[in-house]
């Protein structure tokens, strides 16, 4: 079925998924999220793709979950829809995902960006978890991921006041990797995706898994997990090729095996 709420494009090994409900600042309704998740999962299985980018447009990455879709819902409706359980599937994607953010990145939009592995922001990006202003709270991981990323006190302030903050502030707090002029944010994300795509795909995926484990576990268990994955990579052809190429002073040719 053709996509209605997202646009996809592939540039070599990089897949770009663009949220596309511009009239409502890319508010994340359930059909959009279903399309996004289906396409991300398809790219995760596609051997021609090594890195993904999720982006919006200059005015909005996404201004949150679709408030109109939720406004009249009862607790039973929300429980039955169980929309947020679908978001877990983005967490399970094994290839790296970069969020290329411009404009509003609020509520569920900010939570979607935090599902990604790397955040590139334009100078005009505005972040926030404003759910408190409409009588709720973050529900797609915001209380957990923001706290783990920026620390308890900053997360508490941002979530309890719901205030917006700039890309510069997000960068200073460690929520954003790079802030670039608005004309360049997508190109910057593509350049970084291409850089990652040149690395061994198997090592990239395993390294992503190990970093994400740091969010889930204590230090000792995390170190143990990391060590096992590190040893495991010595069963791959890419490890042999990468180290051999270094010794032979040439560029490695990775096969993902
Ligand atoms: C539905 C939305 C929307 C949203 C904007 N729109 N955000 N529709 N859900 N989250 C719609 C507006 O209704 C309007 O439609 C159009 O987009 C343009 O928005 P304006 O408000 O006219 O633009 P502006 O004055 O520039 O203000 C931009 C804004 C504001 C500051 C971003 O739109 C805003 O506060 N939006 C809501 C942000 C928010 O609270 N997000 C959290 C949602 S809850 P019309 O038809 O009037 O032109 C959430 C929970 C997550 O995310 C839980 C897990 C997923």
Description:
- By secondary structure, this protein is of the alpha/beta class.
- It is 48% helix and 16% strand.
- The protein is built from twelve helices and ten strands.
- It has helices at 30-45, 67-70, 75-81, 83-91, 108-115, 142-150, 152-161, 167-173, 185-197, 201-216, 219-232, 237-247, and strands at 6-11, 14-19, 51-55, 60-62, 97-101, 104-106, 118-122, 126-128, 165-166, 178-180.
- It is globular, with a radius of gyration of 19 Å.
- The two termini are 32 Å apart.
- The site of hexanoyl-coenzyme A has 22 residues, from helix 2, strand 6 and helix 5.
Task: Name its key features.
single chain; 257 residues; alpha/beta; six-stranded mixed β-sheet; four-stranded mixed β-sheet
Blueprint (SSEs and pairs):
Elements (H helix, E strand, L loop, with lengths): L5 E6 L2 E6 L10 H16 L5 E5 L4 E3 L4 H4 L4 H7 L1 H9 L5 E5 L2 E3 L1 H8 L2 E5 L3 E3 L13 H9 L1 H10 L3 E2 H7 L4 E3 L4 H13 L3 H16 L2 H14 L4 H11 L10
Parallel strand pairs: 2-3, 3-5, 4-6, 5-7, 6-8, 7-10
Antiparallel strand pairs: 1-2, 8-9
Bound molecules: hexanoyl-coenzyme A.
The site of hexanoyl-coenzyme A (HXC) has 22 residues, from helix 2, strand 6 and helix 5.
